[in-house]
Amino acid sequence: MGLKLRGLVGALKDTASFGKAALLSPPAAPSAAAAAASLAVLRATPHHPWSSPPPARHLEALLSFGRGSRLAAAALVGALAARLRSTRDPAVALKALLSLHLLLSRGAFILRDQLPPLLLRHPSSGHNPLALSSFPLGSSPSSWALAAWVRWFARLLELLLLLPPAPSDPDRLASLLNPDLVAELEPLVAVAEEIRRAPAPTSSSSSSSSPLHNMLIRETIRVAEEDRIAAEREIGARVRELRERVDSLGFADSVELACLLKRLEGGADRKGTVADDPFWGAVAELRERVEGAVAAKGEQERRVRRRERPMSESARISGRVESALGAGPVRFGSARWLQR
To answer: Looking at residue 238, which CATH number applies to its domain?
Structure first.
């Protein structure tokens, strides 16, 4: 389909969608909120122009739903999810994903609070609007390129929804237990890995349908770059905190942390040496220290096992009873129990 014909068909679809939404808008208050949300979503995710990102004024209209009621916020997120689930146009789907990303990054709390239950997979229903790995490719090279970006950006948005909600406050990070701190690092590493899997924006074609000439794809790249910078900032804060806890990490936490740091470094597009980049230098330093601690703890455990003398079953049972009855007071993880 040529660009002019595609633009004409897209304009006709948008006109029909606006007319249908206007005719089906009932005057009741809940339905009025849903109708207003549907119109706002249609304006932010039009078929035409096909290669342009959502207009700024329509994105601001989406954000304005965060200044209203929770019912209006839920209606907006539900309308975006329905738009994403029903469309087969990769440009519309990518615009809907960018709009959802905007709500996640800049939306008010009542908007962000509606995103996980409506977008992530529900355990009972199994519906997941972001499961777009089988999004149709279309019939033209430009549609193939956009469909690849839709599949990738949907997966990235799904991972962003799983990130820790709180920012990298040093006091909060210092209050976390070692397993919790390591667990917070895993979704951040997953985001960094997924950003590196972005489709390659080749410039083999000089036409306006080339990915580098598509403003919608360029906007997606810009948003993903902001996510990469934010993820590295959050990872860096946790790396600095973990650097102070290497000696206190358990064996299992040390192994998990070493694997996460290897995943983070693997395939990373780093310009220059590690010494030129403080972030990657801190990651490499922590990985080397953790790997050294894992090796030392493993060697120590092997030595202890070699020193253990074989004993009879009755002696082993006696030792368990003595350790259970005469081991002293029980140690709790929280210090507030020590005051009782």
So the answer is: 1.20.58
